[in-house]
Amino acid sequence: MFQSQTPIPYKPLDETPFTWVSTPIQLAELIDKLRRAREVAIDLEYHSYRTYTGFVCLMQISTREEDWIVDPFELRDELEDLNEIFTNPNIVKASLVLILVTTVSDLC
């Protein structure tokens, strides 16, 4: 599983289909495509201002062949269906985690 390999270059943007996912049918189609993927990249945008845990505002999912933007506001009750993909040990998941914290004391 963890073997050194030559990096695979990404495709140009104009060769990579993009789909906005905002209906349960579109989400089911996305999950069907992700089941066949070997690698999946995931990026979450979330709102945490004046909340303790925050909430997801936008979900970006990519394979080597296609990109999706998932609208979590429209699909709040269906997002748990993605657990099948996110917990599948045969699919490698990549995620970019960037945490920036600034407080008043940091600025003084």
What can be said about this structure in brief?
The protein is of the alpha/beta class.
Largest sheet: 5 strands, mixed
- According to CATH, what is the topology? Nucleotidyltransferase, domain 5
* Largest sheet strand order: 1-4-3-2-5
CATH class: Alpha Beta
Oligomer: single chain
The CATH architecture comes to 2-Layer Sandwich
Strand content: 25-35%
From N to C, what is the helix and strand string? EHEEEHEH
What structural class do the secondary elements suggest?
alpha/beta
Would you report the number of β strands?
5
- Our measurement of the CA-to-CA distance between the termini, rounded to an integer number of angstroms, reads 47 Å
Number of domains: 1
Shape: globular
Looking at CATH, the homologous superfamily is Ribonuclease H-like superfamily/Ribonuclease H
Total of DSSP H or I helical runs spanning 4+ residues: 3
Which regions contain 5 or more consecutive residues with pLDDT less than 50?
99-108
Q: What level of helicity do the residues show?
A: 10-25%
The gyration radius over C-alpha positions equals 16 Å
Walk me through this protein's architecture.
The chain is α/β, with parallel strands linked by helices. The chain has a single domain, classed as Nucleotidyltransferase, domain 5. 19% of the residues lie in helices and 27% in strands. The protein has a 5-stranded mixed β-sheet with strand order 1-4-3-2-5, covered by helices on one side. The chain is globular, with a radius of gyration of 16 Å.
Main features:
3 helices; disordered C terminus; globular; 19% helix; Nucleotidyltransferase, domain 5; 27% strand; alpha/beta; 108 residues; 5-stranded mixed beta sheet
